Amino acid sequence: MEYFNLALLMGVPAGGGASSTGSMTTSLVTFALVIGIFYFLIIRPQNKKQKETKNMINAMKKGDKIVTIGGIRGTVLSVKDDTAIIKVDENTKLEMNKSAVSAVVNVETETKVDKKDKKSQKEKAEKK
Fold first, then answer.
1. For site-directed labelling of 102, which of 16, 18, 38, 126 has its Cα 20 to 30 A away?
2. Residue 21 has what pLDDT?
3. How many independent structural domains does the chain possess?
């Protein structure tokens, strides 16, 4: 008799067997959302940055001003398959891997920025 009362007190789970299927679907949807968020916030931007860096290094040519990962600034004298010779000072040349280049600073970009700065300074002076 006690066993019968215990079974009545525990009750029957709501929804029966269908609740396990619903919770499994919810878990799978949540897992898919987490994977999607990781892809769009971490994996995709990283791949895009690697592609841009690879294109920048492959487009490097003689005369480009560069900055290395270590912060050394110089001008490219020649480019080989995996290496580049960089002129750092009047008599100082360094040969380093292309992968050590962190940024290519084109002279054209610098002059465009300088011209814009001069125009904006000129306009400010005229307004005063």
1. 38
2. 75
3. 2
Residue 84 per-residue DSSP state: E
Q: How far is CA 31 from CA 23, 34, 39, 112, in A?
A: 12, 5, 12, 48
What CATH number did the domain enclosing 98 receive? 2.30.30.60
Note whether 93 and 43 are same-domain residues.
no
Q: Are 86 and 74 spatial neighbours (Cβ–Cβ below 8 Å)?
A: yes
Binning pLDDT at 50, 70 and 90, where does residue 96 land?
A: very high
In angstroms, rounded to a whole number, what is the distance separating the alpha carbons of residues 63 and 84? Answer: 11
Q: Which of 97, 82, 87, 96 is nearest to 62 (CA)?
A: 87
Q: Is residue 33 part of a domain?
A: yes
Q: Are residues 43 and 76 in the same domain?
A: no
pLDDT per position as a tens digit, 13-50: 555 544 567 788 899 999 999 999 999 999 999 999 99
104 and 67, same domain (yes or no): yes
